[in-house]
Amino acid sequence: MNAVEFVDAVLRSRNTADCQALLGRLLFPLLGIPEAARTEAFTTPISLPVHGGGAEELVINVAYCIADWHLLAMVTRALKNRELALNFSGLIEENNQNYNALLAMADQRPVTAVYASAQLELMVRIGGFERAAVIHDGSLPKLSEDAAAQDDATSTVQSRRQRRRQTAVAARAEQGKARKALVRLRQLAASVVATTPAQAPLPAIVIRLIGRIGDVTRGTMQAVLSRDAPPRRDQNGFAMSGPRELGPFADHLRAGFGVHVLQTNHGLRQLGFTKNGADTKIEEKLAGGELGVAALMAIGRDHLAAWTGFDSEDELANYCRYKHAALTSRGFALPLPDRPSRIEAEVGRIDRLSTAYSRAKAISRVFERTHNESQRLARLNIDVAFRGVGSAFSARDLIEIAMVADINPIALWPNHTEVSAEAFEVFRFIGRLQRGADAVLARDHFDIVKQAIARAPGERTFAEKVICGTLLDSYNREQLAAALDLASSSAALVIRRRTREFALNTE
Known about the structure:
Blueprint: H1 3-13, H2 16-27, E1 41-49, E2 57-66, H3 69-80, E3 85-92, E4 98-106, E5 109-118, E6 121-126, E7 133-136, H4 140-152, H5 156-165, H6 168-191, E8 205-210, H7 214-217, E9 232-233, E10 239-241, H8 247-269, H9 275-286, H10 293-307, H11 313-329, H12 339-347, H13 350-369, H14 375-386, H15 395-405, H16 421-435, E11 439-442, H17 446-454, H18 462-474, H19 477-486, E12 492-495, E13 501-505
Parallel strand pairs: 2-6, 7-8, 8-13
Antiparallel strand pairs: 1-2, 3-4, 3-7, 4-5, 5-6, 9-10, 11-12, 12-13
């Protein structure tokens, strides 16, 4: 048996106890290494029990990559207390090599991975996941419990014990134990020396396998609306099939508009405006629009948590205090050194969003009136509405609307040809990612992102430049491409709210 077969046998066993024993054999000897002799990478032969082989043992060279020795102490103590979540996993190394792995997670963050890097070598990585991608499904503990329950069913005494464990009281006790274990783990992470981070660093990409994305996408509009033809009428003049209603579409746009106005208001206050001053500045941009600042602020508060990563308005206000410093520290260029430029950057999108909402309402009202008009008059009025307010918007304007208002602009600008409807769906995904909300990218749109990041900068279209400029600020190019390749058989990629985690829909 070689190292690859050994890892596969451990993973196939689906046995938590075996996996914990393996980690113990690999990790506990490291605690005896003096601090002066500790290095980041080294290789040593270790004797490991062969799964299903009785007393037989296998001597394998184990290569260690230890990014943080303090993290090792935390992992081993969590392993002793059975506070590590163990998962089947895939690991994409920095060199884009894929491996089957046993993944140990603490507080939902990957801390240790065991995999076969060669036929005769086992690899143990402790920390250092910042530029690697991790794929896991969280199934190992649950599958182990199922297997144990089936084995215990052969014993009458054990069966009775198992039934007692399935009562409501036992379930609450187990939940309490899990909460206490999590508290101990967090206390342990906080008690280590000051040089140790409070949490293990996140990898470049975490890909979680999930069964469905209904909970994530509920309440969002994924469909691309299209311009409707005038209603057909029967011989008696009654409408046979009315146009698709744009009312829900306009309501969705209004919600995003309100959230953006709320964010802008708090941004202006951190630039020296009073509340009334910020409201007045926004009202100047709303002049002639359908909604006022007070109504939009109320709408924004109602939808803030659903549309962004902020759970409350207080969180948003606190973020705005440190927004520019935080972006600068992350390496984002901010060519806005003076206050007037930053003020204009805060309010710059409001007039376009106001115009887009006015356009949506105007077209919606025209469609409603067409039920009582002849086909010729209905077609004329619809054409006039589409040639009306906001008809001259550029591709840049429409991309901003897609990202901020989370709509596909083709519904309101059907004659636009510079950016495709599919590319606008990618921009909606990017907008949700930037706001910290749940972001869903359908499989039909993977190729758009792949093509954008694969092309040389000088060959990219305007839309592709925007896609690369935003996505590659958050993700490494190679890891993003690898994640899309892995997801090619899935229905969608989902980035969970307030995280950088990718989840693959497997249905």
